[in-house]
Structures are given as C-alpha cells and as structure tokens.
Amino acid sequence: MRARATPYLFLLPYLLLFGVFGLLPIVLGGWLSLHQWDFQLPNKPFVGLDNYQELFTPDSLVYGDWWESVRATAVFTVASVPLLVALPLGMALLLNRSFPGRTFFRAVYFAPYVLGVAVIGLLWRFLLDANLGLVNHLFGIGTPWLTGTPWAWVSLVGVTVWWTCGFNAVIYLAGLQDIPRELYEAATVDGATAWERFRHVTLPGLRPVLLFVITTTILASANMFGQSYLITQGAPGNETRTVVSYMVELGLARNDAGRAAAMSVTLALLLALVSAANFRIFRYREE
Amino acid sequence: MSTRRHFLALGLGAAGATALGLAGCGDDDDSAGTAAGNGGKDYTGPKVTLNLWNGFTGGDGDIFKKLVDTFNGEHANIAVTVATYRWEDYYAKLPGAVTSGNGPDVAVMHMDMLATFAARKVIAPVDDVATALGLSENDFAPTVWKGGLYKDKRYGIPLDMHPVGLYYNKALFQRAGLDPAKPPQDRAEMEAALAALKGAGIQGFWISPFQFTGGMTAYSLVYQFGGALYNADATKATFNSDAAVEAVSWLRKLVTDGHSPADVGQDADYLALKAGQNAFNVNGIWQVNDLKKSPEVQWGVAPVPQIGSKRAVWANSHNFAIVQQKRTDANKVAGAKVFINWLSQHSLDWAAGGQVPARRSVLEDPKFIALTEAKALSAELPDAAFPPATPGIGDVTNLFYTAFNEAILGKKPPKQALDDGVAKADKLLEDNRKKYGD
C-alpha cells in the first residue's frame, strides 16, 4: 500500500503548486472570459461567447486593436525567432572551443540576460532616442529608432536578441557538451570536413535541445511585452503594441478582465497550435 | 512626475483587487457617509484615529506630513496617520483595501479619478462638508470646483490644481535676440519667436508625440481653438471637430516647418530644454521643483500662450475624498471632515510643494504671490480645461493621445487620425455607459 503511494507522494508537492498557480488560474481565466468582468463593479454579467465573437466581428470595439496587436506579435516573433535560434548556436560553437579567456567571454555574452527588462528598456530608450541618443550621434544619422516603422521593429528585435541570446547560448553549450567526443573523432578519421561534422554530428546530437530552444523561444517572443511597453510605448500609434501589451492594458488598466481573458485564451490556443506543429516537424524528421 | 504615473493607476488596481478577493464592492447606500457630524465645522466626540492615504512621494510628501503634524497638535481628539504610496500602487490598493475593510478614512485623489471611484462606490459624497462650511464656487476657481461633481453630488474637496505652463530657455532667447523677460503670450508672438530662433539655428519648440508632453499641449490647444474633447454630457467624442483638427495641424506644422525635429522621443523635449537645445516645452507645474535642482539652466515659466481664439490649458487637481466604509463610524466621518476643512484653509503652506492652491483667498495672499513660478501659473486657473466627470473617461482620452501620436509622427493626416480616434472613442464611451450602468 505504502509502496504504491510513494510515487504519488513525490509528485504531490509539485501537483499542489501546479494546481494553485497553474491550473486554477487557467480555469479561472476561462471562466472570466465568459463574463463582462470588472473587478470593482458589483454586477459581472454572463455574456457567453460574446467576448470571443467580438474578436472576429469587424465593427466591434476591440476588433481593430486586437488584430493590430496580433500582427505586431506575429511580426516580432517571425523576425526574432530565427535570430534567437541561429545566433546563440554560433556563439555556443565558438564558446565551446578551448581558447584563453573562454570563461570570461561566456560570462560576457550571458551578462545582459541578468538585467531586468526595466533596466534594458530604459537604457535602450535613451541610447536609441532619435534626437538625443548616442546611437544616432555616433553615426551622425537621424533614424527614428523608436517612433517609426520598420525601425522600431529593428530596435525591438535587436534589443531582445542582445538581451536574451546568452540564455539560449548556455543551453546549446550544455547540449554540445553532451555529444560524445568519439563521434567527432570517428568522423574525422573517416575524413569528414568541419561542415560535415557540424551537419552530421553536431546538429543531430542537438536535436532535442534545438526543439526545446525553438519552442521556448517562440513562446517567449509571442509573449513579448516589456520591451514594446518601455522602449517604443506601442508607437507609432499602436503599431508596436503586442497582444500581451494590449491584454495588460485592457485587463488591468481598463479593468476589462473578461475581454482580456478571452484574448488570452485565444492567444494560448494559437500558440498551442504553433507548438504542436513544431513538435510534428521535429518528429517527422526523426522518422 | 507624479501625475504621469496615475494614468496607469486604475490598471494596477485590478491586480490589487484580485489579491484581496473578487467579492463585489459594497453596494452600500450612497448616503452612508453624509449623515455624520456637522460637516466639518468642529468635532467634539470621543477621540478618533483617521488613516489617510496619498501618493505624495516627492518633496510634497514632507510638506504634507508637516501640515498633518500641525493639525494633530491643534486637535486633541483627532489623530491623523498618513500612509504614502506611489500613485499607481495607491490607486491599485485602494479598491481592494476598501472591499476588505482595510481602507483609509480619507483619500487624496486626482480629479479625473473621482467619477470612476464614485461609480465604483469606493468614495462617499461630501456635499454636506461644502454646505456646512459655506464653501461654494465663489471660494474656488469654478473649473476646479465643478470638477468634483459626479451625478450632481460632490465627491471631492479641491486642495490644489496643477496646470501645464510654457517653460522656456532664457539662454536660447538671448542667442536669438529675444527678450528673456518676455515669453510669447499669443500666436503672433509665438510664431515670431520661433522664426527668430530658427534664424539662430535653433529648433525652438520640440513636439513630443506622446501624452507627456505633446499630447497635453494638443489637449490645451483643442480647447483654445474653441473645441472640446467631448460633447457636453460626454456621450460623444468631438476631438475630430474643425477646431481640434486645426489645433493638431498647427502642432504638426511645427514639425514640418522645422521648428521641432521629427520623432521626438519620450522626455527628449524636456531634456533638450534643460540641455539648451530646445527653447519651449509645455509641461506640468510639477517640473518647477526639478528645474530648481539645476541652477545652471536659465529658465522661466509663463502661462501657455493663446494660440487659438481663447485661453485654455490642460490641468488636473488633487482632491480630498472620504472613503466609503463597510461599517460607517459617524465619529470618524465627522473627524475626517474637520481635517479636510482645516487643510483646505491651510493650502498656502501646501503651495510651497509646487502646486497652485485651489482656494481663492489663498491665491490673493501676499505669501503666495511671493512664490514666483506658482504665482505665474495661477493665472491659468480660470482657463483650466478638465476632463468631464465620467467614469472611465481616462481610457477614452488615451485614444485622443494615440490619434495625436499618429498625426505628429506623420503616419496619418491630422484629420484622418482624429476621425479614426473618434470612431473608436464613441464605441468605448457607449461600452462604458453600459458597463457603469449610466
């Protein structure tokens, strides 16, 4: 009896945490999305699927803003994910070789990641200011890094890559160190070039790590909020206001939690689809 | 800076409310608070302790605390304790705290928040304070006084008002051959000054595309050109009127004519003024204390010049409100009213914190006249254009600021940007009416 309970007892602490901080909020979010829910008003009428329907009804209050924010999130994700997957891989390959000062460089590339979004946000807002910023001053140009598209996207993607690529690099590095040395030695003996070793030893060896990095990076990019909130403030107009940014504004600033929850559920479903596709592609390659 | 923050405030309020339980806010009777005491003339009951919350985190907080200490010394049976939070945290905590019965007794609140909190039943009417003390419109600037009303009931007793003013860099004035003692006060003077500055190679009036400060400048000009953001009962947005289009176009033209660089970033306009690159910045009275910290900057401040057909400025105001309690303690309410009345009469000392007192008698006091900057901006009191007392109006006004952003950045022509903004604003106003059950 006791033996049978043991595994469940080991799982219990996490189950509790997951239940309280994971499952419960998800269920509550679904519940909220079916209501017109303002925390501070006494009546919170049930509205069925109205909050969802609005997202697809062109003349509704939120339709324009919602799709503009979906577009912003899509642009950011499509632009940032390839960079955040490829660049750290290159960095990890370099940092995996032995050369003097290796530990120093590993720390340097990881360093920005330890800074909070408020710090990097303010920092880059001042550096990229079109008229007073150091960047334009150094190059003697007047690029509107923060207030004009596509420059605002270049800024947001660039800052995010600078900020977070160290994290992905560390994960790649761990993956690289798990690939057995003998495989490389065998490949070298068989006369494989550096590229062939990368293509046929390193990449297959990294497949699970790659899947992890791609999935988490897509999710992180699709949830981007702080950068656009602090650096561009959504400008010009609301062009760089992401879905999460819009949801925060709606749910917390306007106390319109019902609509925000409906958007949140919709975004989660979209991301679940993307992740499922992602896993499919990787499994297909394995077969 | 304090004012910038409070626009986010309600937002975080939601988070606070979740933490404290989702129970609906009390449906207490509106009149719960109004029966107590004689409206603040005096208080003779048993000793009461009052909690007061405010958001005065700057130098103004110390001045406020000193005033409260004086009050406590003079009143043996009333003890006021003060808790200070940053405005956004403060507005965030308030509704949840009130719901759970841990709220303060007295709250300091911005005027444009009164209607929203009144509709949410967080604060109680204070009409009897006004009547018992014989306070009326005549004691205050009418615009400030009317701003405290929501649905014909008074929810706020004004303490001060903080308008925007025209800050200018005197060193740049001299470089362009202008008289630093004579800032422009109408459209012709303004345009002449800008031409002179341009002649000296200076972009004189940086227009930021964000609410702080370009949006507030545009807000002021819409009213100056005879327009308004909303119709009289705030059921329709009117910031695409000819007057509003003219106002925003005038500002956009400053950019296209080279009086302002394009793509001014957040705060860059003000920093450039301090750095001697920008001659004019329409900014809040709260910047006076910040500029005083930089003695190397030669600056002055004057009322916003009249660009349109009349004078008008963006402004906000700090008000006292009495918090709706789950169980009303008549003695506490009576004590709170005595405190509000006392502090309102002592608002001259408050003016030293960098605000324009709301009371007329204080405005004419020689000691106030000695406060140069606040005195200069107090001339704007009758021209203050406050937003209407409608719940949730701040969210709608943000749509005006977004439209302005698009127009100044040249994403859309002013007329189209404002038309698009109004279309959205009308939908939001209708949605708010349904939500707040108006």
UniProtKB/TrEMBL annotation, chain A:
Gene Ontology biological-process entries: transmembrane transport
Pfam family name, one: BPD_transp_1
Main localization, broad class: membrane
Keywords for the protein's UniProt record, in alphabetical order: Cell membrane, Membrane, Transmembrane, Transmembrane helix, Transport
This protein's GO CC annotations: plasma membrane
Membrane topology reported for the UniProt record: Multi-pass membrane protein
InterPro entries: ABC_transporter_permease, MetI-like, MetI-like_sf
Stretches assigned to the ABC transmembrane type-1 domain: 70-278
Localization in the cell: Cell membrane
Record-annotated membrane-spanning stretches: 12-34, 74-95, 107-127, 151-174, 209-231, 260-282
Similarity annotation: Belongs to the binding-protein-dependent transport system permease family.
Name of the molecule in the record: Glycerol-3-phosphate ABC transporter permease
Species this chain originates from: Virgisporangium aliadipatigenens
TrEMBL record, chain B:
Record Pfam families: SBP_bac_8
InterPro entries xref list: Bact_solute-bd_prot1, SBP, TAT_signal
Signal peptide: 1-23
Gene3D superfamilies referenced in this protein's UniProt entry, alphabetically: Periplasmic binding protein-like II
UniProt KW keywords: Signal, Sugar transport, Transport
Entry protein name: Sugar transporter
UniProt source species: Virgisporangium aliadipatigenens
